[in-house]
Amino acid sequence: MTTIAHHLPALQVIVPMLTAPLVMLLKPAGLARAAAIAASLFAFAIAIAMTMGVLDGHIYTYRMGSWPAPYGIELAVDRFSVLVLLIVTGASSFALLAGQRSVDADISHDRQPLFYSAWLLALAGLSGIPVSADAFNIFVFMEISSLASYVLIAGGSNRRALPAVFKYLIMGTIGATFYLIGIGLIYLMTGTLNLEDMAQRISGVEDVNPIIVAAGFVTVGLALKAAIFPLHVWLPNAYTYAPNTVTVFLAACGTKVSIYLLLRFDLAVFQGNLVEHAFHFAAFLMPLAVLGILVGSTVAMFEKDIKRLLAYSSIAQIGYILLGASLVTIAGLTASTLHIFNHALAKGTLFLAVACLATQCTGYRLSQLGGAAKKMPWTAGALVVSGFSLIGIPGTAGFISKWYLISAAYEQGSLGIALIVVLVISSLMAVVYIWRIVESIYFGEPTSDLSSVREAPIAMLVLTWAAALLNIYFGLVPELPVSLSSSAADILLGPTP
Amino acid sequence: MNVLGLFYYWVFAVLLMVGFYAVIAKPNYVKKLIGLSIFQAAVFLLYITMGKIEDGTAPIFQAAENVYSNPLPQVLILTAIVVGISTTALGLGIVVRIREEYGSIEETDIKERDRK
Known about the structure:
The complex is a heterodimer.
Chain A: H1 3-25, H2 29-55, E1 60-63, E2 74-77, H3 79-98, H4 100-106, H5 112-131, H6 135-154, H7 161-190, H8 195-202, H9 209-225, H10 235-241, H11 244-270, H12 277-302, H13 306-326, H14 330-358, H15 372-375, H16 377-391, H17 397-410, H18 414-443, H19 458-476, H20 479-493
Antiparallel strand pairs in A: 1-2
Helix pairs in contact in A: 1-2, 1-5, 2-3, 2-5, 3-5, 3-11, 3-14, 3-19, 3-20, 5-6, 5-11, 6-7, 7-9, 7-10, 8-11, 9-11, 10-11, 10-13, 11-13, 11-14, 12-13, 12-18, 13-14, 13-18, 14-16, 14-17, 14-19, 14-20, 16-18, 16-19, 17-18, 17-19
Chain B: H1 7-25, H2 29-51, H3 72-102, H4 107-115
């Protein structure tokens, strides 16, 4: 194994983190943008390299400063981590490559270096969470990514972005602080912060009450960060009023990383050590998942603003991910982690298409988008393809994860049948809300003069269509995400007996 | 274990709730941020308390037998304090921007202005 390959987990974080201050100093906005894209693509390449490594059966571990674990900070990348890393770095690269026109519209040129710098910090933080194996280190990365994403969202031109960000800041900080209390209590009882070491030492703890309290704090704190219903109230406004490129990036991976951490903590650390943990985990999260699916889809059906509609749909989709996880079976977790990947793909593409629409249309209300498809057929086509993926039409990525989810639920007997009913109802609701978008852009009456409207810039279209085709590709050839997510399920639940 | 022996943990719990109450109940954005700071400071206290033992000194190796406190929680909390300050600073920055745009920092006023 070469030396560079050995350092990949550290480089994954260091490349965007060290480029961030550099980007801030680059004066012409174009230069800052180029540097940000280069760093993001480099990070994407590292994630792909590590994916190939773990598919060959390699597990990356890296000791920061050569201090042996559990004393030093350990970085560990396995098949679950690379799944999340691919989403984070991929979403960032797609959004940055496509976003020039969109960023120009939202952010003035002299502020753009700062914007790209915050972007790279968010990227560094979000990719640091899956890479790190140290609970406190993860907290720091979580706060780096959160603070940077507050800045990114506040960059929106609509003044309503500001109260939205403030709410996100308050709720995000409470979530992170809850997580901090949780790991504090675990540290109090075990004296370790290394996740793997933690899982082993908790089994030796006599008084488990603090651990149970810690599990509660960690779960609720991360549920806040992951926008799990009913802790989702920060999400719709934050996604709606953020600049479009930021929405693409954060909608694809912002909450997914918190769900990754939630699953890793609850299943890999607590599951084996607490009596009846699986039951409590399921009893807490399954009702929330079902409610999230139903409420999110219902609100999305009646929403008039396209970005807000898709944000509420995200809440429903987070519900799907949780529903799979709350079954606490290998099949359920495979479906859940697979849906993390596929939903990121579908929602990222949808928001890219919205960003394309926004370059030409006057607003985000469905009525203001009326008839846009006549002038922007390519954008509308990508929107339809990714909408199909969100609904779960066969042949798209969304179908694969819904299929896995339904088969996982079916194993559960009568409870599973009830869950399948919920899944089918909410898929029909998804048909309704995606249809409302399709109806307005294809058949809606234009409210304003459409003569000046033309197709979105070619770079944006190419990237949007590349993402849309990935939705179809992973719907027809799902081996890569399926193999990664079934290994992730094994990692979370321990090797199958 | 008596109640007084857990004095610092009680302070932690009380401070945590005081901060949390302020965040939820106060409509004024600056007061919310102050509540958030108290909320975070409570957690700092939790960490510092767990590292301290009676008669513990700094962890410097001496020939004579010595009892020392665990320095790691203090180091962790140094980092968490930095995070807390950054959060408060960013929050205050956003409040300034809200004041510029809306002319108010009361949640009720802003909701009313957004409804128009």
